[in-house]
Amino acid sequence: MSFLGSPELFPFLISAGLVVFLLLLELLLLTTGLSSAGDGADLAGAPDLEVDVTTMSAPELAAELDLPDEIALQIEADLEGYDAPEPGATGEVSGPSAGGILDILGIRKVPLTVWLALFCALFAGAGLVLQTALWSTLGWMLPRIVAVPLALVPSLAFTRSLAGMIARLIPRDETSAISERSLGRRRGVITVGTARRGSPAQVRITDGFGNTHYAMLEPLSDSDVIAEGAEVLVLRLPRGELRLVGIGEPA
């Protein structure tokens, strides 16, 4: 069996192939104007204000958020029974529990496709270098069950570092330019994935200064399934969670 045909190399060759696929996908999206790193819609009109949407009626929601009546009615129904914080309560409560893990991995710093391309490239490179070195010097390679974890750990660490460097080089896409709380009442577009409860998707949001932000968010309603490319409204609830409401079909 040839060297490149060794089963011990399959995970890393597949990862390298994914890098090529992601690059081709990004080029395709660029040609259609849907690039995950695009400028996004013009969403700078709504001010970043603290508004408790849980206390509003449907007509108030429609007027405050500039929404059709049917969407406002659905939001009112979804917010019914929301467990708001006690009066006088202080402190920020984090959004989705997965947010901490996403921050540790650096996924929120850059578009998801960029992060995946970085990770796949580093994972493939680490694994191929490791197995090639062993094959050249000792004449054997590690089993996949051993080689994959050995390549995975440094790949995740370096991907996080590189994502941070790229985010600093592109201030327009810097997700930490403003806090998440100021993204409430903004409109955005789902760029990667399908949003459903328990399974967040990546949303591109533009703040009042024209900066583009990326966040992994879930729908407000337990029954909502919002497809990639759909326009959404981001709502910030009193406990600090950011939730999505679908307001437009995928382009």
Task: Tell me about this structure.
It is a single chain. The protein has 251 residues and is an alpha+beta fold. Helices cover 41% and strands 15% of the residues. The chain has helices at residues 10-32, 58-65, 69-79, 99-105, 112-138, 144-169; strands at residues 187-192, 195-196, 201-206, 212-219, 225-226, 231-236, 242-248. The strands form 2 sheets. It has a 5-stranded mixed barrel with strand order 1-3-4-7-6. β3 and β4 (212-219) form a beta hairpin. The longest helix has 27 residues, at 112-138. It is elongated and about 75 Å long. The termini are far apart. The relative contact order is 0.17. Mean pLDDT is 75; it is low at 39-49, 85-98 and 172-177.
Keywords for this structure?
251 residues, alpha+beta, two-stranded antiparallel sheet
Report a brief summary of the structure.
By secondary structure, the chain is of the alpha+beta class.
Break the fold down into its secondary structure elements and pairings:
Elements lengths: L9 H23 L25 H8 L3 H11 L19 H7 L6 H27 L5 H26 L17 E6 L2 E2 L4 E6 L5 E8 L5 E2 L4 E6 L5 E7 L3
Parallel strand pairs: 4-7
Antiparallel strand pairs: 1-3, 1-6, 2-5, 3-4, 6-7
Helix pairs in contact: 1-5, 2-3, 5-6
